[in-house]
Amino acid sequence: MSPTHASTDADADADPAPVTDPDEPTAPPENPDCQDTLDLRLPDELVALIAEQDGTQPTEGTGGDHRSVPVLTSTSQDDLLDHVGGWGPVTTPSGVFQLVPVRIERDLGLLSRWMNDPAVAAFWELAGPESVTADHLGPQLDGDGRSVPCLGVLDGTPMSYWEIYRADLDPLARHYPARPHDTGIHLLIGGVAHRGHGLGTTLLRAVADLVLDHRPPCARVVAEPDLRNTPSVSAFLSAGFRFSAEVDLPDKRAALMVRDRALRTVL
């Protein structure tokens, strides 16, 4: 679908807006950040990435006319997730928590053990030798930064695995009305001792707050846990996310969970 904009050059020739009765009541303006409607304007990063994959780049113009011309030079991209590794620690009711970007030579053994836990493998489907986990991490670590795999470290102990990703640049965006800078979360709690005590809820709220604090353009944090994973869906709800829709993804039927910037102090 081509980008669609709210105004075009044709607007200059449109008839004047009708005069309204000043005494007639009007509805209050709605907050767009809380509406699950499709913003049809492609984010600039996505346009650039599509152009790069096609060997073309958009020309300058007006009205979103992205005509393609051959790429003559390559430029370094900005960090697509605003430097997750620099977000720093945050104090939670369960202790001091920090997202630490994965280093495969340091973390592969631990992550592979977690992936082979039956409770994790049932939903992540990455059980097997370390090479299975390495193959999952590789595209993220070697990619353009649209997904950052991280260890979740609580009071100095690695105890969870997170993927912070640009949902609007992810295949997920084909399955829901994505908006520019929507940021997604994947999570697993690694140690059995850390499960079942409400810790997932605490950390989900903390990480969603980190995203909203450090990514000003992001109006929504989203997640798509397996609909069968009732504890996970419940944890998201308790962490201030709302259930938006059921989504059929290639590998699962998911619950689309959304935490809105505009509602973060309410939910």
From TrEMBL:
Biased composition (Low complexity): 1-20
Keyword Cell inner membrane: no
Gene3D superfamilies given in the database record: 3.40.630.30
Keyword Oxidoreductase in annotation: no
PROSITE patterns (alphabetical): GNAT
Residue span(s) of domain N-acetyltransferase: 98-262
Record key words, sorted: Antibiotic resistance
SMART domains (UniProt xref): AlcB
Pathway field: Siderophore biosynthesis; mycobactin biosynthesis
Region Disordered, annotated ranges: 1-38
Function according to Swiss-Prot or TrEMBL: Acyltransferase required for the direct transfer of medium- to long-chain fatty acyl moieties from a carrier protein (MbtL) on to the epsilon-amino group of lysine residue in the mycobactin core.
Name of the protein in question: Lysine N-acyltransferase MbtK
Source species of the chain: Streptomyces kunmingensis
